[in-house]
Each structure stands twice: as C-alpha cells, then as structure tokens.
Amino acid sequence: MIPTNKQPLFIITGASCVGKSTLCNELFLNEKDYIVMEADLLWNSIYDTPKDDYNEYNRLWLRVCSNISQIGKPVVLCGCRTPMQVENQPERIYFTEVHYLAVVCDDEVLKDRMCNGRGVKDEDWIKSSLQFNNWFKQNYKKTTPNITLLDTSNISPIVGAEIAQKWICERL
User: Fold this and answer.
1) Of 19, 20, 38, 118, which is most buried, counting CB atoms within 10 Å of its CB?
2) What is the CATH topology of the domain spanning 7-171?
3) Which helix (H) or strand (E) segment is 136 a member of?
C-alpha cells in the first residue's frame, strides 16, 4: 500500500530522562487534532543497531506514521531521533514536512532526574544522556530542518505539554 494522504510529522525528541515521555503522555491525554505515538512501543533488541544509526527502526516508524496519517491526522512521534536519522530515509517522502521539538534541560536537572527519579546508576548511560542533551543545545540551529528547543528545567510537564501543543498547532 502506498500512502496517499500526506500529513506533517511531528517528532518530539530528546535525551533519556529529559521529560519527553511525561510531556507526550500529557499530549496523549488531550489529543484531538493529531495522534500521539510513543516510539518505545515497537522497540525490540533486533533494532539495537547503533552502528547504522538505527536505520531499520526509524524506517519502520516512518512507515507506521505514514499509515496512521491516512486517517487525515498527523502523528506526533515521541522518541530519541535527530533529523539526520529521518530526513535521508526513503519513507520521508510520505510526509509534507517533518518538525522536530527537542526537550532539553540543565545538566544538573537531568542528572537528578536520572539518578533520583529513575534510579539510574550506570555512569555510561548518564554520560551518554548528558552528551545527547547537550548535542541538541549546541546543534538545534545547524540541522536541516532546524530543531525547536523546549527547556523543561523549571516547568511542569503540564506546562511543557501546553507549550508543545501550541508549537504543534502553529504548524498544522
């Protein structure tokens, strides 16, 4: 089946424990004009292929999102990805535009969320998450398309979701 009803795709991304899943859960509770999907839903160890930049996993999600969009509503996909992992995929043609919102926060806030909120003890995971969080802060204007940042350091998930909702609606 070839999707014919092209819609925009919204990607809410960010490092582990930055608050994107909590924000997306708030969006999910109030969705009307779009469909919210959590990318971890389809995760399986067969996609654990960081050397190829998770290409098969990203391609799978683009196919799923394009099929969901056939109902006439865009998808908001919540999960860790960058424009470089999406824009060069063959399935990118199934969307009118792809918009990226990166949830970020201060390093100390992220460490606290990881260690005290989730109980993460793995120093490599903490370091990796901090690096990815900072990658967004340093590169959001350098990607094509640009990434919009949403700093959740000092706001509640509900306020973050309200900001994300406004960001989505401005682009519909």
Assistant:
1) 20
2) Rossmann fold (3.40.50)
3) helix 123-139
